[in-house]
Structures are given as C-alpha cells and as structure tokens.
Amino acid sequence: MITAYIGVGTNIDRERHAQAAIHELEKLGCELRVSTIYECEAVGFEGQPFYNFVIELKTVLELTEFSQQLRKIELSWGRAVEAKKYQDRTLDLDILLFGDAISEQSPQLPRKDIYQYPFVTQPLYELCPSLVVPDSSQTIAQIWQQMDGFDSLKAIELDLSMS
C-alpha cells in the first residue's frame, strides 16, 4: 500500500464538492484521514473563495492509474476538460505526495505547492508533521515553520457525511 496525500480545492458549490471528493476518494483507497477545511481567497485570479483541504489515504493503485482516476473524478463532478489553472472550479484534486515518488513529469512529485501555499502546507502539517518530503531533507513541520500567510486561512466546520 502506498500513502498518498491529495490536495482538494473547490469554489463552486463548495460543500457539495468537498463531500464528493471524500466520497470519491474512499473508492480509491482506505484509511482516509481528512484535514481541517480552510476557506481561502482565490489565488492568481478574481473568483469566489475556495475550500481547500488535504486527504491522506492508502491505495494499491500505481501512480499512473491513481492520477487517471483523479482526473475522471474531476470531470465527473463538472470540471471542464479544458479548464485552466487560474479559474473557478467545481473540484480540483492534486497529488501532493505519493509514497516516496519523485517526478518532474506530470504529476510533478512532490508537488511544489507544498512549499508555496499555506492552504496546502497547513493541512499537511495537521496530517503528517514529521514526514520527510521525498527529494528533500525537510519535514512538513520544517516547511510549515518557514512559511508565511497562515493568518489568511479560515478554518471551516462542515458535516462532510454524504447525504
């Protein structure tokens, strides 16, 4: 089993799509753990605020198949095939870490967002503070301690059980 960390983002019908992400990822693995959900302003464009969080899960899928399944989930929940990076979205699922995998190709692993965005680093810190990032000597806690911008994060409490 491989432990994967998936960054989840949504700014269209946010609660519904946050629930959908959890429900759909349960089908791809087991032992899911879900971080706090944070409300954050859109980055790189003018748009509605996002809900961002991280899901940890264990999976038997290989990286290529796992990545393809995430794309299918995004599309099945209304993400446009030609969706751009900086635009509103129903569901965005990004592999942040996938076991010890290191890749410069798509999906890039570890995902550079870990070092750039508090809405990625804070949830990872909650789930796995002592994890050493592959291809790095830093733990998630060390990365988190060097980052600014956590004051822009607003924790949200939702009932994420599927109706």
Overall helicity: 25-40%
Q: Roughly what is the average pLDDT, rounded to an integer? A: 91
The overall strand count is 6
Count of DSSP H/I helices: 5
Biggest β-sheet: count, sense, barrel?
A: 6 strands, antiparallel
Structural class: alpha+beta
- How much beta, percentage-wise? 15-25%
Instruction: State the separation between the terminal residues, measured CA to CA.
Output: 29 Å
| Uncertain segments | none
Basic shape? globular
What is the radius of gyration computed over CA atoms, rounded to a whole number of angstroms? 15 Å
Helix and strand element order: EHEEEHEHHHE
Task: Please describe what this structure looks like.
The structure is a single chain. With 163 residues, the chain is an alpha+beta fold. It has five helices and six strands; from the N terminus they run βαβββαβαααβ. The protein starts with a strand and ends in a 7-residue tail after the last strand.
Concise account of the structure shown:
This protein has 163 residues and is of the alpha+beta class. The chain is built from five helices and six strands; from the N terminus they run E-H-E-E-E-H-E-H-H-H-E. Strands 1, 2, 3, 4, 5 and 6 form a six-stranded antiparallel sheet that branches.
